[in-house]
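Input for the complex:
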Amino acid sequence: MIPARFEYVREDSAEQALQLLAQHGEDARLLAGGQSLIPLMKLRLAMPSVLIDIGRIPELRYIRLDGDEVAIGALARDHDLETSAMLRTEVPLLAYVAAQVGDPQVRARGTIGGTLAHGDAASDLPTAVLALGATMVIRGPGATRTVPATEFFKGTFSTAIEPDEMLVEVRIPRLAGYGWGYQKFTRRANDWPIVAVATVNGRVALANAAETVIRARATDEAIAAGASINDAAEVADREATPTADMHGSITYHRHLIRVLTERALHAAAG
Amino acid sequence: MKVSISVNGQQRTDSVEPRLLLVHYLRDVRGLRAANVGCDTSSCGACTVLVDGEAVKSCTVLCVQADGSQITTAEGLAAAGGELHPVQAAFREQHGLQCGFCTPGMIMATVGLLSQNPAPTEQQVREGLEGNLCRCTGYHNIVRAVLASAEALA
Amino acid sequence: MRVEDRKFVTTGGVYTDDLVQKEFAGAAHLTFVRSPMAHGRIRSVDTRAAREAPGVIAVFAPDDLDVTPLAPSFPMFNPQMLRPWLASEVVRFVGEPIAAVLTEQLYQGEDAAELIEVDLKPLPTVLSTARSAADEVLLFPAAGTNLVATFGEQRDPSMFNGCEVVLTQRLTNRRVAPVPLEPRAAAASWGVDGRLTLWCSNQGAQFIQGELAGMLGVGTGLVHIRTADVGGGFGAKIEADLEFAIIAELAKILGRPVRWAETRSENLTGMVHGRGQDQVITVGGRRDGTVTAYSLEVEQDCGAYPRLGGLLPTATLMMAPGVYDIENVHGYARCWVTNTTSIGAYRGAGRPEATFAIERALDLFAAEIEMDPAEVRRKNLSPPFSAPRPNGAGAVYDSGDYAAALDKVLAAGDYPKLRAEQTRRRSAGLTRQLGLGVSTYVEITGLGLGELKEAAEVEVYPDGTVTVLTGTSPHGQGHATAWAMIASDQLGIPIEKITVLHGDTDLIPAGGGTLGSRSLQQGGVAVHQASIELVELAKQRAADLLEANPDDMVVDLAKAGVKVVGSDQGIRFAELAGRERLLAHTTFAAPGPTFPFGAHLAVVEVDIETGKSVLQRIITVDDAGRVLNPLLCEGQRHGGIAQGVAQALYEEVLYDDLGNPLTSTLADYPMISAAELPSFELLAMQTETPFNPLGAKGIGEAATIGSTPAVLNAVIDAVSYLGVRHIEMPATAHRVWEAIQAAQTNHTVPSAPLGQK
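Predicted:
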């Protein structure tokens, strides 16, 4: 219920935050909205000795058009995404998915950067950005680099961000007018997804179907080859490695992946 | 660490340890115990307060993160003369509470909800209160209280 | 509007953990170390590092406490199932207290507790009544068995001979967690006079006092229980928890007040769970729809240490036949220990289990003979009655009109239209199918843990204010308003001037608490009676003063006094009180428990591709006799419905194969939220009881009892056309989907949930 002790420092610039990260190494964690990290710390599943609060770095909270992409600062809140008129037009899938995250209180503080960096396989935003073909902009002590979403989510709570790096921006192709679909299957409305499927522009991404969010490549290939929605959805679980849990057997998880993919694809097809 | 926080219009500077949760700061340091701790996984919402106008779960915010913020708790909603805020009045009139433990959090979540969506449908109210659990009322009268609040605030 | 509510919506209630009395200045904070293992032998408990941690005042491991293990609280339980205060040789469930840390500040407690090393050697676990009944792994070797108690006799094997139709079904009434929003909390301090004052979150201070005094081995008069606001109880805060005794004992040893407020994770394994019955129902009858024989066999899971849960099967068996006239009814129950959290009372406490079983039986019977479930019920309902009537299983019902309740809900829901819609969707082969579920139920209220009586004291003061002392113990039910209204009705004094007090054993030495839906029919009636007696006393005194005939005195509500009939000559109660204390203390003894009843119609939509069910509507009659306060009554029905729906569709406590809880946080335990529920459609019906002058029965648990079977029946009804006859609850999407698959391929429906056993 109470986090273990830690040192706390608030940095209002990305540069200084990075310096501190480099200084403290793996013992330090970045704190953005805290909606993923603080619950973990309260259960003592995470016990950083140093917490670097970057939640107020002003230059990292934005949603703007940049050529044929939308650029979103890592500290944009879920609520910012949910209510952005521009985002609703340019990347409606993301605006919609941001509104599905947790509850209003969580969305007031949770950030897209924090959520993506947390890398939870059962999380809405990672699923969406994977389907969107997003690019992550990661800043380190020496340089800034970009990583496509397909290479960003590596494994269980593990991403491509190195211990001395910070996710600073997410870049998403503008997809105004493209059909999209998001199907989130939960027990209660506020629960993590048992399975979720995001699709846009011929790409399908799955939540809670493997160690991390994954693309349903077999379905993507089927779509590209002109298969029907039914046939494309039939193979949606090919890359999935679901486990049996309190929500159901492996067979049932696979079944859900296929059903939800079909529904998402229908929604995208209008 | 020193924090300077305004709660219900009263500014104060206090010395706190970094891990002090905002809800404990409000309860034990500022003596405002309307916000309650009902869980340890950010699930129940009984600790909901407004931080800079937004409803947040104060158990999932470190006090130090709220340095420099303006916080409103249920104790700070009523007018100086004691007149109840329309949301408080509506909860009372609609019998939107029984044991009262979830109530301050529910009220603050409602204030937050209505500030973002002043005319919600019943479905939007129910979804908007996903983060606030109540065991006593079955939510029926809470929903009525929120809808009545919306009318009163319109 | 309730008089309590201004406080609750502004500064909030003052719950036990909110108390800042002077008596708790400098109180030590207590943090427990609890067993991480379901069944194990304790090899060592190393507290050395913890003792050195910052802010630690003391650490108590089992050897540090000189106390005797506690015998089970109820005499019919196996007396060898002793409960240690802190587990010393064996741990028997995840969550069992092993050590206690006392610190200056709260946060330090968790830090120090982490430093305590417990070395446990795993023992085989017993996680089901079936495994327990094998008596292979014994939780209490000295007891020689895992059997806690037995109720009734095994049935006569020829019981169903001659029935045209006989069906048997295994059912599980799975364990659930009560989850009051306020977890348990207590604060103890010993006075220089050697008396203990314990504030705790409870449902009846007097019962806690007796139990705690017994645990501590001190005279009852030395234990003073006080009650702050209580954030929900639902039955789980009736009994004195072992933690209260530990807190009190440590406060005595330390010579310092001690306070404790559990975390939610502690609460989900440390507070009693509800339900936990494995059942076998057998129903027999004729093809014309008449049920002639019914048998209910129960295996009650008690958890590791038998508590109130072990008694509840007596209520289950007593209410087995429900609202039906069944010639031949039999019940039998055995109670077993398992390596899990103890089972206690939870909204309905034994009666939901009975109703669930008989309502499933009726639906299964209906499916077998291909008759509409509402129709089968009609054929078997007892006819309306207003005088006491035995039910054939040991209960004597007071009044009821079951057919009228059923008619009302079916009419309000336009049942034929719903059936037509169901047919339409089936013909159209839609993914989202409609299910209709009916329950007709009766339940028993007023049974407490002592006699069926309650005391009340009403006093008017010279300043015109009133106090009402009650032995009930509200935790959301609104007695401060309801009892004030009852007194006000008799005295003419406005409720703003009436204060209702409860929960302090020094002020109110005798009381039955608030449980079993007893409060209005015993406590409220006692207030009513005391108010009337006060008026009579006032009439006597006024008659003396006015030199009038007492028979000529009448109450004058407008002036809050008494007067000579037909005249202006009178005296106010307040004035009388100025001359001599004006109070009435009375006890109302109820002639028996009362039997609220009703019917629920649930409409559920089931997505047959995913199995997910959504409750669309629930229409209810919950008839608890005369309604004194419609707002409060409806509130109880709403809350009851929500908990009943929750058990049917969402909530269950899960353990893995080793007895580790899988639902020990509110992120994992799916406590129902507003988003899962519709608004409820409540219908009014008041069939008074002859058993008390207010004609009131108890409404607190009725709606929970009625709603669970209606909702589950609705889910099964939705997919019955696919061949499904039964689904275990909660009817999660997975269970529904599996049932559909099994029915389609004609395999046996799996009845064990994932993650259990």
